[in-house]
Structure formats: structure tokens, C-alpha cells
Write a structure and sequence with these properties.
Helix content: over 70%
Radius of gyration: 38 Å
Distance between the termini: 101 Å
Strand content: under 5%
Length: 496
Amino acid sequence: AISRRAPEALQAELFDARLTCARDLIAQGEDADAWRIFRQLEDEAVTNRQRAAVYAQRLLIAGDEAMAMAMRLAQSPQADIRAAGLRYIRQIASTEALRAAVADLHTLAAPVQVAVIEAIAQRGETALREPVRRAADSDDTAIGHAAIAALGRVGTEAEVPLLIERLERENDREVALGALQRLLPAEAVNDAIVEHLPDAPIATQRRLLGVLVARNATDSPPRLLRHMAAIMERGDAADGELIGHLADALTELGLIEHVPAMLEVLMAAEDEGRRRRIERAIIRTAMRATQPRDAVPMVIAAMTQAQPPARAVMIRLLANLAGPAALEAVIAELDHEQPDIRRAAVRALAHWPDPAALPTLDRLLEDDAHARDHGLLLRGRIRLIGADEHRPLPERVAMLEQAMAATQGPAERRQALSIFGRLHSDEALSAVEPWLDDEQVRDEAAAAALAICRAIAADHREQAMHVLRSIGDVSENQRLRNEAAALLERLEQEGG
């Protein structure tokens, strides 16, 4: 026996040694001997930690009494003892025993109900969902919230209507959102959420769409698109906000195989705002794909059936996707009978993302029929010359000089000069130097020349020094003059 007169530390060591001995007896199948030791230790325990350790082991060999014992422990005011009972409920108790034990869950004190519900939630068994559903109706907020949260772990798609109803209650909203985001099985729950969308208020629909996005419900876009089509067919202007929310969800959830259905909805949209929201969803969907240009033939096929407003949007889509097939399709639209479509094609080519459009831009710039778009086309040409890094540098300089000669205002010249500053050659410096005398673009010319001088001064020292002196003479920008003077001084010192 443990001597009450022994030092406290020794008493604790002896207690733990006997507890270990009892555990070993359980492992050897000697439950009766272990039980006797546990009863003695229970009488001799000094601290709640010791008592909890004894109870945790007794639960393992308590047989049919274990569940009732665990429920009693879960109601203890002592945290260590309470934890022992809840651990058994959470990790060890059989489903059948626990389901029977919690049939009268509502009779327990509120803190105990919350703790037991949380333990059930961690088990994640749908077989225990009924007592949790009943607890969700409790008038006690803590119990109700614990139950709603638990349904996210033990519930099924059958809980979706209840959770949506709670989503509409401000006090329950956050916990219901969390439960909906966790609820399984994924596809069945996603279907149930989409099924209940049309009957929900707009604010609730917006939240449910956010839930689908949080769940990464990439199986839901076909049904979301049907919902969107039905709304647009209704023709109610007040539905614009909801269509926007649906488009935002599709932006996050769409897959490349959903693009044809998105294009159908695009063609049904009756105002430009809605078309642009759907356009954004299609672009984001395509760009997330491993091969974004797989969407190009889908867009081209849809264009054959599209009316001018939707057709113009599809031209923009092709410009975003780019590639040879997209470029060919947009060039073909330059001959469309509708002026708005031709203009959309011109704008798409002017904003084309790669230099493949340069030959077509050159042709359009030479065509008087496109004089009204001269500035737009020229800016596009200048941008693509800057992006055409595979073209030989002298050829890019010559093309940019030609573009500068065709400019009609300072905006295009500033754009061209900014690109000249990245073309580090003596030819580029020679092309920029005359623009130091143009008051409208003098600073931009000086900045470009200074950048080129820094890069080529080692091989073209005299030319660089000449241009740096010119910057100092004509620029009214103090910073540029100072930088030019510092570089010039360094070059002069290096030259001796």
C-alpha cells in the first residue's frame, strides 16, 4: 500500500507505477486483477489528474457500463475528469452505445451538451446525426451553434435545407456557412445547394455561391449556367445583381469543358454589362486550364451562331487566347458586313498579345479605310515591336523609327521612346537623339537616351558622350541632367 506518510513525490511515483502495472495486466487479459488495482487507486488518488488517469483505464474494461460511466465523467466539474469521459466518447465508444446514450442529450446541462456534441462532431459519423439535428433546435445559442457546426461533420446532403434556413438567420449565419463548407459527400451536397438556389433570397444565393466556391465545387457550373439562363430568360432588370454573383462564381469554378455552355449563356445575355461578366468568367476559366487555347475552337464555333453584340465579345475572347487559329479567325472578321464587328476586330488586333499580329497591323495602317483607328493601330504596332524580342535588334530599331515617323501626337511618341530605351544599340541612340529637340517629348527622349548610353558606353564612348552633353544642354529635368552629367564625368575620367 502507498504510505500516506511517504513524501509526496514518492507517493506519485508509486501511484504511477501501480497504474502502469494495471495497464500491463489489461494487455495480458487479466482484467479482474487490473480492476482491483484501479479501485484501490481510485480510493488513494490525491489529485484530479490521478483520478482521471484511473477512470480512463477503468473505462477500457468497464464493458456494458463504460458508456454510462463516460457520460457521468463528462458531467464532472473537474476538467481532467471531464476530459477522460469525453475522450472515451470521442475515440473509443461504439456507435450504437453512443447513439443510445445521447438519446436524452437534451436533459443534460448546456455545457455538457456542447462538449458531447463537439466530441460527436470529431467522430464524423453520419449515424450520429439525428441527436445532433435535434440539438440544433435548442433555444440555447451555445448548444444550437455547436450542433449546427457538428452537422458539417456528421451530416449529409439531407442537412442542406436546414443549414440554408439557418444561413438566413443573422445569429446563426457564420456557423451555418462553416458547416455547409465542410459537409460531405461533396458532389451530393453541391447538387443539393444548387437545387435550393432558385428559391432563396438574393443575399442567401450570394452566400451559397460563396460556399460553392469555398468547396471548389467544379461539378456545379452546368447547373449554375442553367440557373443563369433561366434568370436571363425571365428578363427582369432587378436580376442583374444575381447574374453578377453567378458570373463571379463561374469565374472561380469553371473548367474548360464548361466553356461551350458559358458561350451559350453569353449569346443569351441582352446587355453589355452581363456579357462582360460572362466574358471574364470564360477568360478566367480558359486561363486556368493546362492548355488555355483549347477554348479557341469552342469560341470560333460559337461565333458562327452569335449576333453582333455577342460576336464582338467573342472577338475579344480570341484576342485574349491568341494563337494562330484565333488570329486567323479575327482577321477574317475584318471583312464582316457589320461595321461594329469590323471595328471589334480592329481593336482586338491592336491589343493582340504577341507579335504575330504585326503584319496585319502594318496592312491596316496603310489602308485609308481604317484612318479613324490610326492612333489605336499605331500604338498596338509600337507595343508589339517592343515585345518582339526574337526579331534582330537593328530591324526592331528600324521598325520603331518608321513608327515614330508615322506618329501624329506625343502619346505615341512617348510610348515609342520608352521602348527605344530598352533597345541598347548605337542605332537606337542615333534614332532617339533628334527627339531631344522636341519640347513635347524631350524628357522621354532624354530618359531613353540615358538608358541606352549606360548600356553601350563601353563600346560607343564618343557617341554616348556627345548625346550626354546634349541632354545637359537641352533637358529641363534636373534629375536627368544630373544623371547625364555624372555618367559623362565618369566616361571622361575613364578616357583620360
